[in-house]
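P.,

For your records, the input lines for the assembly:
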Amino acid sequence: MEQILQQYQSVASTKVMTWFHVGKINDFPENGGACIKYKAKQIAVYNFTRKSKWYACQNVCPHKMEMVLSRGMIGDLSGTPKVACPLHKKTFSLENGENLNGDDYKIATYPVKIENENVYIGFTD
Amino acid sequence: MKKVIVIGNGMVGYKFCEKLVNKANSTDFSIEVFGEEPRPAYDRVHLSEYFGDKSANELLLAPSKWYLENNIKLHTSSLISSIDPSKKEIKTYKNESFTYDYLVIVTGSSPFIPPIKGVEKKGVFVYRTLEDLDAMKSYASKLKSEGKIEAAVLGGGLLGLEAANAAKELGMNTHVIEFAPRLMPRQLDLPASNLLKQKVEAMNIQVHLEKATSEILGENGIESMAFNDNSSLKVDMLIISAGIRPRDELARNSGIKIGERGGIWVNNKMQTSEKDIYAIGEVALYNDGIYGLVAPGYDMANVAVEQITGGDLTMAPSIDMSTQLKLIGTEVASFGDPFIENDEVAVISFENKHKGIYKRINVTKDGKKLLGGILVGDASDYNTLFQLYINAMKLPENPEDLILGARGGEASSVGSVMDFPDSAQICSCESVSKGAICGMIQDETCCSVSDVVKNTKATTGCGGCKPMVVDLVNESLKALGKEVKETLCEHFSYNRQELYDLIKINKITTFNEALNLFGKGNGCETCKPALASLFASIYMETANRQITIQDSNDRFLANIQRNGTYSIVPRVPGGEITPEKLMVLGSVAKKYDLYTKITGGQRIDLFGAELHELPLIWKELIDAGFESGHAYGKSLRTVKSCVGSTWCRYGMHESVSFAIEIENRYRGLRSPHKLKGGVSGCIRECAEARGKDFGLIAVEGGWNLYVCGNGGATPKHAILLAEQLDDETCIKYLDRFLMFYIRTAAPLTRTAPWLEKLDGGIEYLKKVVIEDCLGIAEELEKEMQGLVNQYECEWKQAIEDPEMMKRFKHFVNSNDTDNNIEYVPLREQKMPKAWR
Ligand SMILES: Cc1cc2nc3c(=O)[nH]c(=O)nc-3n(C[C@H](O)[C@H](O)[C@H](O)COP(=O)(O)OP(=O)(O)OC[C@H]3O[C@@H](n4cnc5c(N)ncnc54)[C@H](O)[C@@H]3O)c2cc1C
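C-alpha cells returned:
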C-alpha cells in the first residue's frame, strides 16, 4: 500500500519536466472528472467548467486505496475546489490535496495545461 | 519555561495535552509525550467501528500534524521503562533519558487475563488496541477459510458484549461466557439482565451464565474450553474481556505509592506520592477506585492541567459511572446507583415482556430526587433521566410518569431540555453545560449545531448527547426569534421541499441554472445528488442527462462495491422469473465471471463487473428482455410478493400479479430515499409487506394498505392507512401517498422517519391521502401518472448513445483496464481482496 502511495507526489507547475498529452477537452465531462494513464500512474482529471479551471490528482483514494477518485463528484467548500470520493465521500482539496474532513490523508495534485483544446498533465518523470 | 513530560498517549493523555495547549499561559510550558503504541492517540471508545467502515486514521483523536502545530514533541513506539523521582528523570526502553519539571503518568490499563491453564494458546485475544483488532481480523479470516467459525468471549460485561458483537460481525458463530449469574453484573439487576440475555440470544449470540472456565484446550491453537461443571464448548477463537488492570508497573518500580489492589494512588489534585508527579486516567487510584470510562479521565486531565498551570481546581469526591451499551443493536443504559434499595429509597419498575422493555428508577422516599436507574429495550429517555439525576433536579409530582409517560395529557412528563438549569451538564465527556451552549447562541458566537460542536467539542466523545445539543441549539435560536431553517448545504439556503417548488414553478432544468438562480458557489456532494433526485422526480429525467451531478452509483447506473467494481441487478418484477431468463443471468454471470447472489428483494445481484464491462453486460441483458432494476438509485427498488392465491392454498388474492403491476407502475421512480414495497396474499404475510415503505396484505374484501415501514438499522412496522381497498383505489392511494412523500421529505429520509416528523402523523396522512384535506389529491395523481407515462429504461438509453457511453471507460487515453483490482476465492466463487 505504501508502494502505491509513494508513486504519487504532488508536482509544482514550475518543476514540470514532461507535459503529457491526455486527450481533448471534450473527452472530459463538464464539471466532472475522468481517469488517464501515465506510465504506471492513474491520474484523475477534472474539467471544472463552472470555475473555468482544470485540476488533476491521483486516482487512488488514500482511505481505502481504490482507484476511484476520478468518478467522484466535484464542488467547493467555502470556495476551495474539492472532490468527494465515491466510496465513502471523503473530500479532498483539488488545490493542495489536503483532506477536508479533518483526517490525516493527503492526495498528490498535478498541474494541467490546455492548448488548442488539448489537455496536458505535468509530470517530473 | 517548564518542561512537562507525559507518559502514555491514549485518550486521557491526549486530552491532557489538548487542555494544556489551550491554556492562556501554555507558552510557559514545553510538552514532550511518550506513547508505547505506534500511532498517535485514537478513539478507543469507538474502537469497534474499526470493524465497520472506520479506518485507523479516522479514529485518530488528532492527526500527527496537530502535535507539530502545537509544539508538542510526540514520540510514538516509545515505551518508558523507568522513572527516577529524585533526579526528575525518565528513561526509555532504549535507555535514553529525559528530565522533567512535571511528570504526568497516563499509562491507562491493560485487559486482565485470568490465570486459566492454556490462556497463552494461539487464537486467544484481548480487545483493547488497534493491533488487537488487526490480529483478530486476520485470525478470523484464516479460520473461516478452514471452515472454523466458533468464537467465544470470556466476560459478559459492557466490553465483552461489544466484543461479542464484533466477533459476530467478523462472521463468527459467537458465544459469551460469564462467571456471574447475569450479564453486565455491574450495571444491571436480574430482570434487566434476563431481558438483555433474551435480546442478545435473539441476535444469535449464545449466552452461558455461571460458567467458570477451568482450562483452554487445543493442539496448535485453542480448540475448546472446559468448565468447572465438567461441560465444554468447541471454540476456535477466544476473546478475553474479564476486566482491566491499571498499568502501574512503571510507577511501582519507581517507588511511587500504589494501592493495595493496584493503581497509582492520587489525591484530589491528581498528585501522586512523589513531588511534581501526577497520575490521571485509568491508571489513577482516586478515592479507592479505578474508573474505566473516559469522562472521569477527562475530568482528571482538567484537574491536572489546572494544578500544573497554577489553578486550584480539585476533583469532585464522587465519580459518576453512568453508561450506555453501544453497538449491539439493543438499547441498554444504567445511571447513578442502579441497585440501591433501602428504607430511604422507593424503587419504581416497569416491564413489558411483549415489547421487551424494562425500566427501573430509584427515587428518594419523598419522591423528590432521582438516585439511579436502568433502561433496557428503550433507552430513549436516558439523556433526560441522566440530567435529572446528575443535576439533582426536582422530579414531577408522580415520578412514575418518568418511565411510564404522562397518562391522559399529551405533554411529555419530563419537560424539555430548556427546563434544565444552566449548570446542567449536557456533554459529560467534554464537560459542556447547558449554559455554555445556550450562551454561545445568545451572544452570537455560534449560530448552528456545527458551530457549537467546533467551539465546545460537545458530542465528539461518546455522542450520546447529540439529540440534546441539537434541541438546545434550535430552541435557543427560536427563543431569539431566529428562524431555524434546515438548509440543504452551504450552496443552497433552502430545504428540499422549497427547492422542489422553485424548480417546478420556474421550470428549471439544469443544476447550473438552479445554482445560478437560487444558490451560490459551485455545488458539492450533498446538493448535487439532491437536485438530481428533484429533476428526476419532477421531469422523470434519467441519470444519463446530467451525469456529473449524480451520486456515485447513479453516475454509472450500477452499485459501486468496495474494490471500485460494480454490481448489476436487473429488474425482476414481483420476483417472478422464467427459467429462460434465469439461464440468461446464469450464462452472463459465467461469461463475465461475476459473483452471484440472491438479494433480499427477490432478485439476482451480479458482482464484480468492471466499469468498461457494464455496457457489454447490459447489452446482453437488454437483448434478453431485461431492464434496469434501479438498485443503484434512491428510487423504487422492488415490490416483493408471496406466491398468492394462484398456487397457495391459503391465498386470498393474486399477490404476484398485483405486485408485478405495482412494480411496473413505479419502476424508475426516484424519491428522497429508496422505496420498497411488498404484497402478501393473506395475513400470514410471507412477503413481509409491513417491513416496507408500502405494503399490501390481502384480506376478505380487498387489500389492507400499510405505509412507512422499513427494515434496516432501525426496523419499523408499516402502519395501516386504509382497509379493504379494491385494486384501483389501492393504486390511487399509493399514487397520492408516494407523491406527497416525494414532494415533502427531506433528502435521504425514508418514509418512516418522514412520517415521524410529519405534524399530525398518520392521522394527518390519512386526511391528506383519503379525505383530501389539502385539496391536492387530484394533482398528486396527475403528477404520478405523468411520471409513469414518461418511464424509459435508462440502461437502454445509455447503450444506444455513443456520447453517453463515453463514461464507461476506465482510462480516457488508453484501452487498458484498472490493474489494481484483485480477488481471492470464496467458496466456489470469488470476493475482492480485503482492504489494506
Ligand atoms: C473496546 C472499548 C470500548 C470502550 N467503550 C467505552 C465507552 O463506551 N465509554 C467509556 O467511557 N469508555 C469506554 N472505554 C474505555 C476507554 O477507552 C478508556 O477509559 C480510556 O481509553 C482511558 O484512557 P487512558 O488514557 O487512561 O488509557 P489508554 O487509552 O489505554 O491510554 C494509555 C496509553 O498509554 C500507553 N502506555 C502504557 N504504558 C506505557 C509506558 N510505560 N510508556 C509509554 N506508553 C505507555 C498505552 O500503550 C496506551 O496507549 C472503552 C474501551 C475499549 C477498549
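Two observations worth noting. Chain B touches chain A at residues 53, 55, 57-58, 60, 63-65, 490-491, 512, 515, 521-525, 527-529, 547-549, 551-552, 555-556, 560, 562-564, 806-807, 809-814, 816, 818, 820, 835-836 (CB under 8 Å). Residues 401 and 413 of chain B are 6 Å apart (CA to CA).

Regards
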